[in-house]
Amino acid sequence: MTETAPLAAHGAAITLTACAKTFADGTRALEPVDLAIAAGETVVLLGPSGCGKTTTLRIIAGLEAPDAGGVVRFDAEDVTAKPIEKRNVGMVFQSYALFPNMTVVENVAYGLRVRGVAKAERLARAAEVLEMMRIDALANRGIDQLSGGQRQRVALARALAVRPRAILLDEPLTALDAALREHLRAEIDALLRRLAITAIYVTHDQAEALALGDRIVVMRQGAIAQIGTPREIYFQPANDFVASFVGITNRLDGMVRNGSFEGAAGRVPVTGPDRAHATLAFRPEGARLCGVAESSLHFKVEQVHFQGARQRVLLSAGDGARITVEASPDLPLVAGDTVGVALDPSRLALV
Amino acid sequence: MRSHPLVFALQLLITLLAAAFLVVPAATSILAGLTVNYFQGVRSGLTLEWVAQVWGLYAPTIFRSIGLALGTLAVTLVIGVPAAWALVRKPGRMSRLVEEVVTLPVAIPGLALALALILTYGGVREFRASVLFILVGHVLYTLPFMLRSVMAVLAAVDVRTLEVGAASLGASPWQRFIQVVVPNARPGILAGALMVVTLSIGEFNLTWMLHTPLTQTLPVGLADSYASMRLEIASAYTLVFFIMIVPLLIAIQMLAGERKAKARKSRP
């Protein structure tokens, strides 16, 4: 724990109650939203652009006031009327927002400077944070001498140096290239976990959301579509939108009769009442290829993509529905074969 | 691509002719200010006497112009920088309208602007007779240059995000303005300041209408000397004007060059 000493845990629980946002021109950016975030939790707001995730973050930050009736609480304190500078939140932006007129260490020390900490002490404390993030070698560089990844690390250090009650990250990795994104994501994940700080992370990238979040809030058209752990979101999507937004989803249309889903490909036992129309949704990993005799779901092999460690197989059902499953690489498969598919009952959803 | 020697020679000739067209009259005028008798030409000898006479006659107008330029600069800084910040912060129809209205004095003939000022405030005698009256005119005329110059730089560094970043770290609006907005607007402020000083020193249209015999500025004094003095004195006066304005122009050029070089450097 000595390593995290300069930034000991101090996260606040954040509660939004009936927070809606209507802009001056009448656009409704956010329907009334209720959201409870536990102290120390990492919550990811996930959704396509215009879904209200950034507006939600801005309401938490204090950059946007919710419509009348909305309340934002940090622990028990009502902060709805407080501007951002009084909320003590750290923010990290897609565009870094580092001050070009200051060096790296001055940037990191800026929050302490506005709090009136003496120069020697604030620079020492900033240096400590830089060391903890292993970027102390950059301390005296100018901002324009840093790469994108370095800039975002400095931005993170700057936000954490003031020991905020929560850290808010607005698409922090979007401006970086893919390899760096993965690397920095792992670093941020490790850091947030080590510091046990309340973190709210906005992204449109489902892989980022699944990897980082303790919980994910999937948003759509200004409303929350589902809140759950990454596993819940992935394996038990609450509706079609969540299922299609997060990962590849296979869908089969049919009906439910006598505890069994019936579609063009065959039958699958399910739980639930009879329905005249039902869609069975499952992930590629929730399905397994098997012999025709072992399953009552039968498909025709359309395409086989060999990917080294596994092969990805595109299958079609009698009604033209297509699904994707993964198979071990040594299984001999040829387009035109008929195969059986066994579904893991814990990894499928009726929607 | 290498051009034909003949084409090159032609290009060079045209460039030199164009340059000569502009430079020769200036040089002639400067030379006239240094010759003993312009009508006899340089043969009559060179002298600094005319410059000395100009100094004796018009030194107050020179100092007045410098004071006026610095005063205009101070006012445009105090009004222009915060205004540019406000306009960049809240882009929208309202701020565009404000920007257009502020820019209007550049498009309106100086004479019309001066007449409007005289009609409105001419009745206040002390104000009408003081240099402040001219100062108001110069501020109206130069403010858009400061405003636009600062706005362009603030928009380029994305000052809105920088400000949100500073606010999230606990900075009050005043701290944000002094510690983040102003330092990052510096290139724009500097360029705007040189522009304002240069325009104010050279301004004639407005000032000619607004001045009184006791509040003559350098360009107005120039017109006065052209109308009533020997050609040599008027030319010597031009020389004095050149000495004042050319260093400012060079500074503007250097600043622009520095900014371009910096933009190149920061693009990896």
Q: Can you characterise this structure?
A:
With 351 residues, chain A is α+β, with helices and mostly antiparallel strands. Chain A has two domains: 2-245, Rossmann fold; 250-350, Nucleic acid-binding proteins (OB fold (Dihydrolipoamide Acetyltransferase, E2P), Beta Barrel). Helices cover 24% and strands 32% of the residues of chain A. Chain A contains eight helices and 20 strands. Chain A has helices at residues 53-61, 104-114, 119-132, 148-161, 178-195, 206-212, 230-235, 240-245, and strands at residues 14-22, 28-37, 42-46, 71-74, 77-78, 89-93, 166-170, 199-203, 215-220, 223-228, 250-256, 260-263, 266-269, 275-282, 287-290, 298-306, 311-316, 322-327, 338-343, 348-350. In chain A, a hairpin with a 4-residue loop joins strand 16 and strand 17. In chain A, helix 2 (104-114) packs across helix 3, helix 2 (104-114) runs parallel beside helix 4 and helix 3 crosses helix 4 (148-161). The two termini of chain A are 46 Å apart. In chain A, 43% of the residues are buried. The model of chain A is unreliable at 1-5 (pLDDT under 50). With 268 residues, chain B is mainly alpha-helical. Helix content of chain B is 83%, strand content 0%. Chain B has eleven helices and no strands. In chain B, helix 8 runs antiparallel to helix 11. The longest helix of chain B is centred in the N-terminal third of the chain and has 41 residues, at 49-89. Chain B is globular. The model of chain B has no long low-confidence stretch (mean pLDDT 86). The chains are: A alpha+beta (351), B mainly alpha (268). The A-B interface holds A 61, 63, 83-86, 88-91, 93, 95, 97-101, 110-111, 113-115, 144, 147, 155, 158-159, 162, 168 and B 157-158, 161-162, 164-172, 175, 179-180, 183-184, 186, 265-266, 268.
Quick take:
The complex is a heterodimer of chains A (351) and B (268). Chain A has 351 residues and is α+β, with helices and mostly antiparallel strands.
